[in-house]
Amino acid sequence: MTQRHFSVQPEDDGVGAIGQDRRGADRYRTVWRIAKVMRNGDAGLWRVRNMSDRGMMLAADVPISVGEALEIALSDTVVIRGKVVWSEGGRCGVAFDKEVDVAEVLKRLAAEQRATGYRQPRLPVHTVAEVVTDEGSSRIELVDLSQHGAGFVHDGHFEVGKELDLVLAGGVKRRAIVRWSRGERGGFWLTQPLDRADLESIRRFEG
SS3 letters for the chain? Predict the structure, then answer.
């Protein structure tokens, strides 16, 4: 593979009005989707702007370096690996390590999203947050985060349906409801989603 096969420029999404374009043998399709991106010990939720058989354009406001190796999880089962070939103005282009059939990938993702039990991308974290209830405040360990929820470990005193305030690092605060609890694990549902930009890097929540 050479970079000339993946030449989408930052100022051009590489797609036409119908969401598909051709450059040589490649096909570009508009994809408005959030992906979990793993890189060098960090993870974040980035926007997928478009995708082809050979690469994709991602959008994120965190620093991105040319040559970085990325692992891009479009779902729990669809994971693609590649390297950054350009980065500018909050966008970057990624060339895949191996070509994919973009039409088949998008078809599979659509089927997964319609299936029962589908979950949005979650970020693995190891951080402590504060929970505030009518009875007072306490600290809790979070194990994953998404825009709409958080997974946690606890000592069994959180009942399903309990409402509370969840305070994350940096003072990010959301009203939450205990959605499920089994053994020492549980999950919060956030009544107001986290901003996607807050989740572009989990490093702000670590430590």
Answer: CCHHHCCCCCCCCCCCCCCEEEECCEEEEEEEEEEEEEECCEEEEEEEEEECCCEEEEECCCCCCCCCEEEEECCCCCEEEEEEEEEECCEEEEEECCCCCHHHHHHHHHHHHHCCCCCCCCEEEEEEEEEEECCEEEEEEEEEECCCEEEEECCCCCCCCCEEEEECHHHCEEEEEEEEEECCEEEEEECCCCCHHHHCCHHHHCC
**Residue 177 CB neighbours (<10 A):** 16
Token pair recorded at residue 81: 């690996």
Number of folded domains in the chain? 2
| pTM score over 0.90 | no
**Residue 64: CATH number of its domain:** 2.40.10.430
Residue-range definition of the domain harbouring residue 131: 123-205
Domain boundary among 114, 146, 168: 114
For the chain, residues with pLDDT lower than 50 are 1-25
Give pLDDT, residue 114.
Answer: 86
